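User: Show me sequence and structure for the first protein, then do the same for the second.

Assistant: Starting with the first protein.
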Amino acid sequence: MAPPSELAGRLTADLNTARRAQDKPRTLLFGTVIAAVKNRELELGRALTDDDVVEVIRKGIKTRRESVEQYQAAARHDLADRELAEIAVLEPFLPAAIDPEEIRRAVREVVAAGTREMGKVMGQVMPRFKGKADGKVINQIVREELQAG
């Protein structure tokens, strides 16, 4: 069984620090993320691991990136800047990014083994990098490798 999440504890500690500093934007951000973590815990019906918490944080960052695009398209740069600031606060909680070449090697192994369909390649590669690499990056590399080969 995986150990309970230390990352959730770090989020709570940062929330308490933000509260003491009366930093309302950070307090709201950490409160929102912790609520999402607790919701995920209820969904799964078990204590979360660090990988589970990273997944919740990644999802939050992805949502904020989508919001940035929408705000920029609507010329609401003030709101886009706020979302970008939140992303900058959350990114340090993520593990270091995997080198794209490592992903590329894994994709080439799967393709060399005879798998040529996008969905099947993704199905074999994604679990190896779950929580460690952005799905968009993996998807792009799989497309490039299938077109090249």
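Switching to the second protein now.
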Amino acid sequence: MAWNAPVTQSVGTLITPAIWNSQIVENLLYLKSPPITLMDSLQTLTTSSSSYVNVFETQNIVTAAGGRVLLMGLGYANHNESGVVELHLNLTVDGVDDVAGSDGYVRQYLQGTGREPFVMLYMSDTLSPAMHTFRLRAKVIPIAGTTGTVTITTRRFWLMEV
């Protein structure tokens, strides 16, 4: 079911069953169940790269109405060695970093070994009606001369047109 741009009606316009179904019924059904993309399986990446690398390849969503996309996700990161590192998570939309600057969308300090959870809620800018590709990317920055690798595990990510 796709969103149909409503047409402004004027006095005296005959509303046919086709117009009613297209502009009222189908749009209500669309609003009740908007397009959603769900990644429900574990995805892991182990990296020590100080440049952004893909955590998982792609999540695609069709924005039928040309609107915004709400991204929600959760996972955790394990620092695999002693010392302190910064984990930076960023999003790209259609191959373009969606957050300006090098810090990314999430910056998390990981000290010693252990698991640290992360949660992401993100609203995109208005996107055109088309298929769009979202990627979660990560980089690791050592602090005070330490080194280390980080394993990022995504538990669940989903995208929904809003």
